[in-house]
Please model this.
Amino acid sequence: MNFKRQLKEGVITNNPILVQQLGMCATMAITTSLFNGVGMGLSVLIILTCCNVAVSAVRKFIPDEIRLAIFVVIIAGFVTIVDLLLQAFIPALSESLGVFIPLIVVNCIIIGRAEAFCQKNPVGASFVDGITQGLGYTVVLVIMCVIRELLGSGRFGGGLIDLAKGITLDGTGTGIQLFNSDYGASILTLPVGGFLTLGFLFAAMQAALKKSAKKKAAAAKTEEKEDEAA
Amino acid sequence: MSVTKLLEIAIGAILINNFIFSQFLGCCPFLGCSSKVDTATGMGLAVVFVMGLASAICYVVYDFLLVPLGLEFLKTLAFILVIAALVQFVEMFLKKAVPSLYAALGIYLPLITTNCAVLGVVLLNVQNNYNFLGSVVYGITGGLGFMLAIVLFASVRERIAYADYPECFEGFPICLVSAGLVALAFMGFSGMQIF
Model:
């Protein structure tokens, strides 16, 4: 399996959020600080990878009619493990993400990948798919966080980065204040900002994909012409 | 729980902390099933029904089964199984008893299992320590809030069809942006003191 191709698919051409349009609730809800975004992204990456491997490993023994129920039980098991680990080792993250960690169970990305990819592919490819799709998810979350935090309150890396202490894992980092928060558009840190930021990101992605498709079509056309000329 | 407390939960769930516009629970069906007012109403009704029932059953399962056995950490797993079974059961019941409603809801009924508003409401019931009556009221009114949001938004979307917007906003992005504007209107309720 080609790792580079899968990576490109997961992060750009088949991005779980911006192209497959899955798992948007958490994307809009928790992207208020970089700490939340990175934490949520990595949690989903770990859960997705574990679930992909598990589903792919048992894919030949599962009767087709009850496969969804089995997937859900596998996913809920891994989500519970990660939830408990976070409560034990990074309690600040568990507190600030709140109900959205257990809600990863019904995050369509994970069940979507199980259904669309792991059912048909061997363990190794599913493992890589979990990592690349998880990375694609994390990248979008981080972009959302950076935009909302920077424009909303003039900060970068809230909770995660502290000028005095370096990287903090207890959520106390004050971030790097780039300009006075009074001048920020505080609407972006509110729920409305989640909808607006994701809407504009989607639009940008659609425009970019359309442009590259056009370019490819144009390139194909010129090649055809050259062939004909030859 | 006193009546005023229940009223506070109800108004909070419908307007102030609306499930979609301020808590972001249930966005997928909200964006997926809101292209027509009719389907939005059907989806909303089904969600009210399932959220109310799930709140009641999950309260019983948590307080009389998981807590006495010391298995609170399994709540996510237990709740999702209860919800999946419940949705399946409701589907079978409606098919036999009220076939007209079953036909109207169609594909949306099984999809409620993966609606994060349903799992969200039962988890929030536990987190907020609501008693049985409080849980049921929160479940039903949370569903009503979802229904209000999805019906309002469906009427907005019927208008968008005639609007003129940039080409790259075609489809999904314009929905998100207009949902943001509806959420802005709902922000007018935030900070409202009831009693």
